Amino acid sequence: MNILLLGSGGREHAFAWKIVQSPDCSRLFVAPGNAGTADIAQNIPLSITDFPAIHRFILDESIDMVVVGPEEPLVKGLVDYLQSQPDTAQLPIVGPSQLGATLEGSKDFSKRFMQRNGVPTAAYETFSAEEIEAGLAYLEKQSLPIVLKADGLAAGKGVLICQTLEEAKDSLKEMLLDAKFGDASSKVVVEEFLSGIELSIFVATDGKSYKILPEAKDYKRIGEGDTGLNTGGMGAVSPVIFADAAFIQKVEDRIVKPTIAGLEKEGIDYKGFLFIGLMNKDGDPSVIEYNVRMGDPETEAVLPRIQSDFVGLLQGIATGTLADYKLEISPDYATTVVMVSGGYPGSYEKGFPISLPASVEKSVVFHAGTAKNGQGDIVNQGGRVIAVTGFGKELQEALDNAFATVGQISWDKAYHRRDIGQDILKLMN
């Protein structure tokens, strides 16, 4: 098969790394890709939201399947666009329709979907700028802390956890009246704060059948001990000790089954990945949010644990034959440590040459925000730059292997957290 993969992050490098291992992949194109995908596939300078250019490329290169990595083209309707063109109407695509992608594109839509389909989630109300007084009055009746979420896509930055009533009121005004997150906060979901241990569950679905992929825990804050600003993710661990078989069974029965049944019942075309952010409170799961793609950096820890043919999984999703696919998962640990540009998630400098090891053991190096400069050097091009995944029979071994490789990678002002996985090790001991 000729496969087109859209995206440029660590998630897409992990996808590419897994896809090219399959005997069913003839050629892999990544648009736009990064310096890591360039080594194993052919990078194509296409914008992931230039739908006509993507369509032309599919025809020119006889693409047999499209895999969409990030959420933006899905929320903007790429799948619907390609299905509306006669010559790509039947093309297998891994990614939901625009309506399906609204599960991530609108927090309010997502919460209403959960309510209708009996999926456990935090209590909430949604407010617009015209309803600001009602929103402020609602805040006065809620317990603290309270969560404020921009309704639309805000690049992972649209969620605020407010500790005081004054902070909550000021934040609601900033979001609704001052457009703190632009159009994304034209509506704001005010939500009960859920306590417990957070984790991510990943589901592959063809809209009827589903496969539950390995779970993961990620680390969002920039600082060690989960301090400082939120980021796109500083590391991940899979599997996690607090997601035992009994807990996963609850997730499947209470969340996955009603979610997939709800999509089918409501006529929502959904062939892709569903990333469910969960809170485990005393062994009971509640949904924090849906995302309509794989997570990053969780993908870099989850995909290496899949032992069965990955292109077969993608085909099953895209062609509605997922029920026939046998998913095989390694029991071993995979731990990911993300290396970022100094200053991230604020402003940072780009263009520093990156020193990379010629070879690594018991780990793999995934590129995220990297590019090649005019001299052919690999340089930092984004905030999150490199994700190193270590493997091991035990968690400590996997962490040791990841950090050993991190120690061989450097560029000016590089930073990483040194405490990834330490909280889980404490639970285990």
TrEMBL record:
The keyword Ligase applies. PROSITE patterns: ATP_GRASP. The keyword Flavoprotein does not apply. Pathway: Purine metabolism; IMP biosynthesis via de novo pathway; N(1)-(5-phospho-D-ribosyl)glycinamide from 5-phospho-alpha-D-ribose 1-diphosphate: step 2/2. It is an enzyme of class 6 (ligase). Residues 111-319 form the ATP-grasp domain. One of its GO terms (molecular function) is phosphoribosylamine-glycine ligase activity. This is Phosphoribosylamine--glycine ligase. It comes from Algoriphagus oliviformis. The gene is purD.
